[in-house]
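Hey, I'm writing a tutorial for new members on how sequence and structure tokens pair up, and I'd like a real worked example in the thread rather than a made-up one. If someone can provide the structure for the chain below, I'll link this post from the tutorial.
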Amino acid sequence: MGKLSHRTKKVLHQSLPSHLAKRHATKRIIRKLADDLGLVYFGYVDQQDDEHRLVRGITVSRTHDDHHYTVGTFKSYDIAFTIRRDTLEYPDKRLKDHYWTILTVDLHTTSNDIPHFYISHHRIREELLARFSTMNRLQLGAFAPYPESFTSAYEIYSSQEHAVEVQRVITPQLGEMIVQHFSNMSIEVADNTIYLYVTEKHPSRALLERMLNAGIWLAQIIDMDKHLPN
């Protein structure tokens, strides 16, 4: 018998009783959180369906699947949760499934001077480089040195032309606070939306709440900074 295709292996894995039990448990956790916070749980959403706003960010693709899609408002911010699956092809032609628990928080600011950037936690650097290697890792320290606690855990990616402006948003002081608040999360800011990513297929309620609190906190920091006079 020849080697099984990547797709066949995935289907077989998804039919295992242990996988089904975890999937149902994840659904219960997210639905309960949605009920408690007054959010709306939709479950699986088709990315071609215009009735739902697509969760974008750097992991968006023509092949991803979004499950446990949940939307609503929390502490005056529009938010969305989803668990995204996609198959990434690496430069050596490997195919590997990846899962991200994603939280989005829409910023209140309408400022258009927030550049697109991605703060990559070292634990998920491989996924970033597999598809998004055109982004540049920024050399930090344009205004002041960044703490070792930040640089040992995170790298910031953006276009080189935005390097200085990114460091005006993510200052060394804010970098140190990110280490304290965000644990192993990665952060993207694009089109006035914050995206938090964790490589987790079956998040706990505690993890979802930690992401939610961290995302709202960062949104408040950025909004406050963008509304302060120069």
